[in-house]
Design brief:
Layout (H helix, E strand, L loop, with lengths): L10 E8 L2 E13 L5 E5 L5 E2 L6 H10 L6 H7 L7 H13 L17 H9 L12 H13 L13 H13 L5 E4 L5 E6 H13 L3 H12 L1 H4 L5 H9 L2 E5 L3 E5 L5 E6 L7 H11 L5 H11 L6 H6 L2 E4 L6
Antiparallel strand pairs: 1-2, 1-10, 2-3, 2-9, 4-6, 5-6, 7-8, 8-9
Helix pairs in contact: 1-5, 1-6, 1-8, 2-5, 2-8, 3-5, 11-12
Length: about 325
């Protein structure tokens, strides 16, 4: 069994204030790498072992491409996504399955309601229930199946760690990120590798500048179709479309980002919370010249929309990522 990140490897990363008084604090670890892979800043232990979860989807998508999946740009962006399950997301996932003459019954991810409330309400109004296409990992699973079908590999065991498609994904993750220390199971049923936080940052650094055709395709797809990566107005989509920074969340307080110049950051919040994590990561990039302070302030306002209610304004609630937003 793998080791777990613990409080001794963490430092304070985020604080939530009310009327200028600190109300809550989040601890964790973060690391920033320069374009050559050298550590620019480490908060907490960058060698702490984490499950990056969905932050690894771009690398799993690279594995699917290498295993034979023929994906158009938007479909590839969806393979990298933790999407909100809008009608557009669902149709895109279905198009991947249609391309290899498969249906959603072949997906082994859970059925779910969409994360997008408007789509959820519309489906309920039509008398529709949960489905697998609406699950946030359906794009990744559809890409796995497309690769298996294209290469003539078994479909029913496509999530097995020994399946050729998963072996291709594992090789891609180790090529870009580094050693996998332990292999668990993700919430969607796919393998969930454990690695150091620095390894995750290294993967994002390479993703932004790799000459590898599959990696370039994945990075370009995320930038060309940011809506597919999460959904309109969501943090990952907003960051990608407004800056060109590749941003990918992972469950339980994980986030990886890479700026176009190759500066990358990886963050893990110990308690699994995600509030403020985007402002934190962007602030770390800005502190090392990969994002202007003006753009940071603009994005911080847009990413902290929950603090713009009348009550929040009266209380003076602020979500500060390592205090960068206050500078």
């Amino acid at each position: 069994m793998g080791s777990a990140i613990d409080i001794t490897q963490c430092s304070e990363l985020l604080r939530i204030t009310r009327n200028s008084v600190i109300e809550s604090r989040h601890y964790g670890a973060a690391v920033v790498l320069d374009p050559a892979g050298q550590v620019l800043e480490a908060i907490g232990d960058p060698e702490a072992l984490v499950f990056p979860r969905s932050a690894l989807k771009p690398f799993q998508a690279i594995g699917s491409l290498r295993a034979g999946a023929a994906l158009e740009s938007a479909q590839l962006a969806l393979a990298c996504a933790s999407h909100l399950g809008t009608e557009q997301h669902q149709l895109l996932a279905r198009s991947v399955l249609d391309s290899v003459k498969l249906g959603q019954e072949h997906l082994q991810c859970p059925a779910s309601w969409p994360g997008d409330s408007a789509t959820r309400s519309a489906m309920a109004a039509r008398g529709q229930g949960q489905n697998k296409l609406a699950f946030n990992c359906s794009g990744k699973h559809a890409a796995f199946l497309a690769a298996a079908a294209a290469s003539g590999e078994p479909l029913g065991s496509y999530l097995s760690p020994e399946h050729p498609v998963q072996l291709s994904a594992s090789r891609a993750m180790e090529e870009f990120c580094g050693p996998i220390t332990f292999l668990g199971v993700d919430g969607c049923g796919a393998p969930a590798p454990q690695m150091s936080l620095r390894s995750l940052a290294e993967g994002f650094r390479k993703l932004a500048a790799s000459p590898d055709p599959a990696a370039r395709s994945a990075a370009s797809a995320m930038r060309e179709h940011p809506w597919a990566v999460r959904g309109a107005g969501s943090p990952n989509t907003l960051v990608i479309e407004s800056t060109g920074i590749i941003a990918k969340l992972g469950a339980e307080g994980v986030l990886g980002m890479s700026a176009p110049n190759g500066v990358s950051v990886a963050v893990k919040i110990l308690d699994g919370a995600s509030r403020g994590i985007d402002v934190l990561a962007l602030g770390l990039l800005a502190a090392h010249g990969a994002l202007s302070m003006r753009k940071l302030e603009e994005l911080s306002d847009r990413l902290s929309s929950a603090a713009h209610t009348a009550g929040a304004r009266a209380a003076g609630v602020r979500y500060l990522g390592r205090d960068f937003a206050a500078r």
